[in-house]
TrEMBL record:
Coiled coil, from the record: none
Protein name: Cytochrome c biogenesis protein CcsA
Keywords associated with the record: Cytochrome c-type biogenesis, Membrane, Transmembrane, Transmembrane helix
Native source species: Nibrella saemangeumensis
Regions that span the bilayer: 12-29, 50-71, 103-120, 132-151, 204-223, 235-256, 276-292, 299-318, 338-358, 378-396, 429-448, 460-478, 484-506, 518-536, 814-834
Length: 854
């Protein structure tokens, strides 16, 4: 059955959202332009509000319709089939909503609609000009999911409500069965099956949406010839946007740290950079907004940077969704044919902003005198300038694919390429930018609170001397030898101590004024965390065996780097690794209603069904969850590899790095992390046997052995200790006339002994044989014949690849300072946002009372 109603309803809501956004744009434009007839203006205002509210309701309708399709597994829809599957739990179905381009545009549209309604209710003074631009942005965003095609090639938007047969009309199955519905979908990308996928994208897109608020305030201020007045209402929104967007970026970093196996949280990927740059510019704009009331330089910079932060969001959208970064980034979306539309979207608002700024530039007041080097305005401006330079360096390199594409449009073949080692390239510049920024935060705070008088810098001597003492101690005990690391550490410690001193002074007066100092302290702690966790990360999985683990390019490049920094662990065989003794305990899976992990050989997995059959009773922590033969619901795709760590003091803990072999993406592994106050132990698997393939057994070999004879099994020494009668055979009921004997074979490994016990059975006058298999040894042995005359026993032996993992482990010192610094940064931004909002609310209330008195 094809569920067309919900799709048609969703598409209707998309069209309604687009049309009402256009109507709201026109109506708000008419309201902003004004009319001599106040009643007519009031009518236009009413139409504008109603249109925008209907737009918001229509967007909500689109959201509900699309989630209804995903949640109910309507795989006849291309979006549901592409991104979801029957096995996904509800929270991952939510993630499916915004995994695709259409869903992410819809999420952005949704947040914008909520913010637009809030603005219409809270700031009626600026409503008309501000919401004109706001509604126009919504019209452009709604057009991205419109899905209207004119002729054969002209397309506006990509609809999330396309049926599979509409999206893939040339698929043979639809020629024979137009109503074909797949039984299951492709499912969520394995790397996205993480709780961060549920909260990171909404946070990031809320940050995107919030950057538009200061932009529309700025445009409204220029439009109404009020180039200064827009600053005060826009400032709390800018602070909130910087906080939310920054948290979204850092969530992405933590997600990468937990999910990807490159051993860090930031890889300078072009898609990461395209969000990082607008955030830096937004932070710079906040600093210029603080000085805009006193300095024309600050005001002009605030206008430029507030506009630029939103335009850079649009530019990042173009980069990540046009397909232009397809070969440069693993995070880039594929091109859905919307690159031209995205470019129009970007250029339209660039043109609008530039034309308006040029026309209104002469209205911006000029300073009567230049800012003094002892003024807070001067140092804030210097800080904003350095932040902008840092952002420009990242932007200039990230945009190399764009330069090449532009050159191609003019018939020029460009050979520009992104740096081979992008991490080293960006780090060598960004470290020095942040050394300067950290120093400026300390100096700027002292000047802001008038601790430094003209011509007298003595107030900075105390934090400077204390910084040198603390830094010297840290450099000595931390054995820091790199001059760049030393410089960054000294700057971060100075920022921490200088802002801490200011903070103590503020707390004695009014703690509500301390948002800036708290934010700067958070940034300083983050820098120290980044310095130690990245600069002094230590690989502990050193291969001391002298053997090459793999001859693949991935392991042999860079002078056999990965061969040297990975260890090979055989199942249940202990190996020494740094301060730990490691033992690989086997493959584990997750059963949905059973806590923790269970051995994979406890369950027969039904491939493609996300279910399995229990091969034994499933118990955890003394509680029976399933009996042998029960059908179980499994979490899909991932296999966990239990690695037991034994410390020198005898303490034992286990880590469970996960991996899966994906047909399209190869080995996908995610780390497991042991978190301690001073450092993290970060473990992931680099190579595994294919978990989906069955063991390939060697050709059968026969051994004729007498009691107490020694022979070799798969390079191990084996001894036939005994052959004795047994009354119990697993999985078999013996009768009174039946007989069974069990051989006891002792296998000697270098670290331990194993016992194999194959059984020979005579049941109902028929011969049966039950082999015994050792996964640790990679041996299967069967008792085939018993010769009472010679006293010899014939054994059939097969060999296979033993189970193993190749794993890498690293220690990340002081990484918790990065996460603690992030929390402090958020607290500081929150305090500053609340303070600036209260200031504006108080001013607005006072202005309203004065107007009533007049």
């Amino acid at each position: 059955m094809i569920h067309t109603t919900v799709g048609n309803l969703g598409h209707l809501f998309v069209i309604l959202s687009f049309v009402t956004a256009l109507v709201a744009t026109v109506a708000y434009l008419k309201t902003a332009l004004g009319s001599k007839d106040l009643a007519e203006t009031a009518q236009w205002r009413k139409l504008a509000r109603v249109s925008f509210y209907v737009h918001g309701a229509a967007v909500a309708g689109v959201v509900v319709s699309l989630f209804w399709i995903i949640y109910n597994h309507y795989f006849e829809y291309h979006y549901a089939w592409s991104h979801s599957s029957l096995a996904l739990p509800t929270h991952y179905m939510i993630s499916c909503f915004w995994e695709g381009q259409e869903g992410s545009f819809l999420l952005w549209l949704f947040w914008n609609a909520i913010l637009g309604v809030i603005l219409t209710r809270t700031d009626k003074r600026w409503e008309a000009p501000m919401m004109t631009v706001f509604a126009l942005v919504q019209a452009f965003l709604a057009s991205m999911i419109l899905g209207v095609v004119f002729g054969e090639s002209f397309k506006i938007g990509s609809s999330p409500f396309l049926l599979l047969r509409e999206a893939m009309p040339n698929t043979p199955i639809f020629a024979t069965d137009p109503n074909f519905v797949p039984k299951d979908g492709n499912g969520l990308n394995p790397l996205l099956q993480n709780y961060w996928m549920v909260i990171h994208p909404p946070t990031l897109f809320l940050g995107f949406a919030l950057t538009m608020v200061p932009f529309v305030y700025c445009i409204a201020g220029l439009w109404r010839n009020q180039p200064v007045e827009w600053i005060r209402p826009a400032l709390p929104w800018s602070l909130l946007a910087a906080m939310v967007l920054g948290v979204g970026i850092l969530m992405g970093g933590y997600w990468a740290y937990e999910t990807l196996n490159f051993g860090g949280y930031w890889n300078w990927d072009p898609v990461e950079n395209s969000v990082y740059v607008p955030w830096l510019v937004l932070v710079a704009s906040i600093h210029t907004m603080l000085i805009a009331k006193r300095s024309s330089t600050g005001l002009k910079s605030a206008i430029i940077l507030s506009v630029a932060s939103f335009l850079l969001i649009l530019y990042s959208t173009f980069l990540t969704r046009s397909g232009i970064l397809g070969n440069a980034s693993v995070h880039s979306f594929t091109d859905l044919g919307l690159s031209g539309q995205l470019l129009v979207y970007l250029l339209a608002f660039v043109g609008l902003a530039v034309v308006l700024m040029v026309r209104k530039w002469k209205l911006i007041p000029s300073d009567e005198e230049e800012a003094s080097v002892y003024s807070k305005e001067f140092w804030l401006f210097i800080g904003a300038t350095v932040i902008c330079l840092a952002s420009f360096q990242v932007l200039a390199t990230t945009s190399i694919p764009v330069y090449n594409k532009v050159a191609e449009l003019f018939g020029v073949v460009s050979n520009l390429a992104l740096p081979a080692d992008q991490i080293a390239h960006y780090n060598k510049f960004q470290v020095w930018f942040f050394v300067v920024i950290a120093l400026l935060t300390g100096i700027g705070q002292y000047l802001w609170w008038r601790k430094v008088e003209k011509g007298n810098w003595r107030a900075l001597m105390a934090p400077a001397l204390l910084t040198l003492l603390v830094s010297a101690a840290l450099i000595t005990f931390g054995e820091i030898r790199n001059p760049v690391y030393m410089a960054l550490l000294v700057a971060a410690v100075f920022a921490l101590l200088a802002n801490g001193t200011i903070l103590l002074g503020i707390f004695r007066g009014n703690y509500r004024l301390s948002g800036g100092a708290v934010t700067h302290m958070g940034m300083a702690l983050m820098l120290i965390g980044v310095l130690f966790s990245s600069g002094f990360s230590r690989v502990v999985s050193i291969n001391n065996s002298g053997l090459m683990i793999s001859r693949s390019e991935e392991f042999t490049k860079n002078d056999n780097k990965e061969n040297k920094e990975n260890v090979l662990l055989w199942l249940n065989q202990a190996e020494r690794m740094g301060p730990y003794t490691l033992t690989y305990r086997g493959q584990r899976i997750e059963i949905r209603d059973v806590p923790g992990y269970v051995p994979r050989n406890w369950v027969e997995v039904i491939e493609g069904d996300f279910h399995g059959v229990a091969l034994r009773d499933i118990e955890q922590n003394g509680k029976l969850y399933h009996k042998k033969g029960d059908t179980l619901a499994l979490y899909p795709e991932n296999i966990y590899y239990e690695v037991e760590y034994r410390e020198a003091n005898g303490k034992i803990f286990s880590l469970y790095p996960r991996a899966q072999v994906n047909e399209q993406m190869g080995l996908l592994s995610s780390p497991d992390i042991r978190r301690k106050p001073g450092k993290d132990l970060y473990t992931f698997v680099s190579s595994i046997p294919d978990p989906s393939s069955e063991n390939q057994w060697s050709k059968t070999e026969e051994y004729k052995v007498s009691l107490k004879d020694t022979f070799f099994l798969n390079d191990y020494v084996a001894v036939l200790d005994n052959v004795a009668r047994t009354n119990e055979v697993e999985g078999m009921q013996l009768g009174a006339d039946d007989a069974a004997v069990k051989a006891m074979i002792r296998v000697l490994d270098k670290n331990q002994e194993y016992t194999l016990e194959p059984v020979f059975v005579i049941k109902d006058r028929m011969i049966g044989r039950k082999a015994d298999t050792s996964e640790e040894l990679g041996v299967r042995i069967q008792l085939n014949e018993i010769n009472p005359q010679t006293g010899q026993f014939t054994f059939a032996v097969n060999r296979t690849q033993r189970d193993y993992v190749v794993m890498k482990a690293m220690e990340k010192p002081l990484i918790n300072l990065l996460w603690i610094g992030t929390l402090i940064l958020v607290i500081g931004f929150t305090m500053a946002t609340v303070r600036r909002y209260r200031e504006y609310h108080k001013m607005k209330t006072k202005a309203g009372r004065q107007a009533e008195m007049v």
